[in-house]
């Protein structure tokens, strides 16, 4: 399965299909047929929702969706965390809804990051049903401007109270194509490093929907914007505005903050620990390139890499492969190299990574930052969220 995923990824992002190996070229007709069937299924499903054959559920609180049009590495989960932290900061308790794909590594990471906040987590394919269960259990308060004061006055009659347990907003993780739940705000994340590949739908290309689906978006966020040139940013903006001219556009990046060693999450190790070291980057994420580029900027002596497909679960044979690479680097440079992984890879299976001992394995921790761009700042992004979700903060009451 890992080989198939690698082949599909190489085909999807090949600059020149003619330069693909013979095996990969032989897969293109089959992938093309599958892509056409996927397109037909997608169109039919969307049409059934649009014409009311499938129900669209509405929740009694503000709902923001964070999604994308292509597979992996677009910064959805860091953006979900950013929004959840902001909601907590302004006094609104969020419920994060996730499908929990591939063992729930992203949810595990979010739980660890937001452990001291009132954030709640609902996991399941039927997110409307999961949300209803949480709202029934914890209660809710609709903090949208149109209902805030009325509910404050009639709270006892409506069985609504305002405390940290009440759910005040819902954040949908990876929900651009989750049409069964109504949302007040649709944010689409775009990976500035990889963009949309060959512009083909799955599985021939990386797209879950055609680029015209951006017309449904309320905002587009270009992620890893610090790792691409100004000219590329202009090209991306031009493409997006060619589809929806007036759409708000924001830029984000991941700022490395500190490291911790596998087996000791409480010890914050400074980033300088990687200075002049021999590093082996190991990752199974959607955008390994961005991860490696960040490490290369930290003054390491030498940086090598072992990449797996997104959400890949490490097995004993993978550990053996990594250890073989580490011994090769040790022989080449005369000192023990350091393994660096992402938090997502750590939270997928912390235990198996201990098998890399006696080589040190560090986990790189990073935080999403909103970059300044043509008048857009972190503050303007937060104001955008407030305005489009029509929120009335409890502190403003």
Describe the protein in words.
The protein is an alpha/beta fold. It folds into three domains: 2-50; 62-248 and 376-396, P-loop containing nucleotide triphosphate hydrolases (Rossmann fold, 3-Layer(aba) Sandwich), CATH 3.40.50.300; 255-366, 3-Layer(aba) Sandwich (Rossmann fold), CATH 3.40.50. It is built from eleven helices and twelve strands. It has helices at 2-12, 22-50, 76-89, 105-113, 127-138, 145-153, 230-243, 288-296, 316-333, 343-348, 378-389; strands at 62-68, 94-98, 120-123, 169-173, 185-191, 219-223, 249-261, 264-269, 278-283, 302-307, 338-342, 361-371. It starts with a helix and ends in an 8-residue tail after the last helix. 36% of the residues are buried.
Summarize it.
The protein contains eleven helices and twelve strands.
Descriptors for this entry?
397 residues; alpha/beta; Rossmann fold; 3 domains; 12-stranded mixed sheet; 11 helices; 36% helix
List the helices and strands and how they pair.
Blueprint: H1 2-12, H2 22-50, E1 62-68, H3 76-89, E2 94-98, H4 105-113, E3 120-123, H5 127-138, H6 145-153, E4 169-173, E5 185-191, E6 219-223, H7 230-243, E7 249-261, E8 264-269, E9 278-283, H8 288-296, E10 302-307, H9 316-333, E11 338-342, H10 343-348, E12 361-371, H11 378-389
Parallel strand pairs: 1-4, 1-5, 2-3, 2-4, 5-6, 6-7, 9-10, 9-11, 11-12
Antiparallel strand pairs: 7-8, 7-12
Helix pairs in contact: 1-2
């Amino acid at each position: 399965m890992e080989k198939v995923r690698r082949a599909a990824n190489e085909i999807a992002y090949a600059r020149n299909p003619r330069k693909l190996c013979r095996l990969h070229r032989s897969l293109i007709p089959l992938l093309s047929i599958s892509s056409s069937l996927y397109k037909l299924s997608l169109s039919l499903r969307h049409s059934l929702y649009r014409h009311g054959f499938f129900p669209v559920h509405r929740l009694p609180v503000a709902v923001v969706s964070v999604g994308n049009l292509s597979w992996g590495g677009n910064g959805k989960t860091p953006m979900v965390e950013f929004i959840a932290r902001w909601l907590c900061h302004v006094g609104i308790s969020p419920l994060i809804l996730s499908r929990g794909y591939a063992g729930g590594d992203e949810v595990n990471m979010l739980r660890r990051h937001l452990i001291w906040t009132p954030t709640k987590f609902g996991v399941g394919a039927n997110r409307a049903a999961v949300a209803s269960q949480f709202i029934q259990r914890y209660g809710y308060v609709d903090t949208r401007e149109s209902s805030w004061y009325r509910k404050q006055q009639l709270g006892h009659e409506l069985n609504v109270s305002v405390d940290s347990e009440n759910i005040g907003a819902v954040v949908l993780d990876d929900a651009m194509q989750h049409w069964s739940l109504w949302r007040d705000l649709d944010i689409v994340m775009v990976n500035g490093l990889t963009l949309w590949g060959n512009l083909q739908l799955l599985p021939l290309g990386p797209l879950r929907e055609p680029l015209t689906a951006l017309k449904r978006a309320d905002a587009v966020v270009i992620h890893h914007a610090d790792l691409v040139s100004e000219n590329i940013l202009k090209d991306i903006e031009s493409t997006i505005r060619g589809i929806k001219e007036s759409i708000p556009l924001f830029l984000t990046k991941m700022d490395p903050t500190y490291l911790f060693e596998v087996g000791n999450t409480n010890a914050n190790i400074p980033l300088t620990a990687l200075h002049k070291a021999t590093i082996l980057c190991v990752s199974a994420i959607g955008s390994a390139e961005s991860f490696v580029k960040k490490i290369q900027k930290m003054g390491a002596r030498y940086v090598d890499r072992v990449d797996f497909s997104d959400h890949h679960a490490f097995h004993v044979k993978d550990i053996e492969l990594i250890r073989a690479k580490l011994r090769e680097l040790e022989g080449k440079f005369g000192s023990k190299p350091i393994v660096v992984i992402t938090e997502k890879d750590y939270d997928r299976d912390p235990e198996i990574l201990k098998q890399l001992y006696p080589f040190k394995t560090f986990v790189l921790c990073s935080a999403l930052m909103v970059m300044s761009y043509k008048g857009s700042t972190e503050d303007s992004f937060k104001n955008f969220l407030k305005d489009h979700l029509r929120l009335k903060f409890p502190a403003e009451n």
